[in-house]
Amino acid sequence: MTFMAFGANRTSAAGRINCRISPAIKRQAEKAAEIMGQSITAFTETALAEKADQVFARLSAIRLSEQDFARFVRAINRNPQPTAKLRKAAAEYKKLREKEPSSNW
Asked: If I label 46, which of 37, 56, 63, 77 is the partner at 20 to 30 A Cα–Cα?
């Protein structure tokens, strides 16, 4: 994650985001920026980056209950025998590879 210390500069080139917010949120952000010793731009950039990091962190992990995790572990540890259809497909693949070993399979 990329959390910034307040007042830190991210880049010298700037992108722009224009959006409308309620006057109450604007006042709250301006007051928070002042408390942090930041400009409203720096405060907004930091807040947006932190929120984006939170979203990505939340969406990059899978959370399972203990019961679901146990079911998952059992499923991946099972060693089922290949079916006749799978054995046939593997044999056909092996023949094709022997016939055309330099082909991009």
From this structure: 63
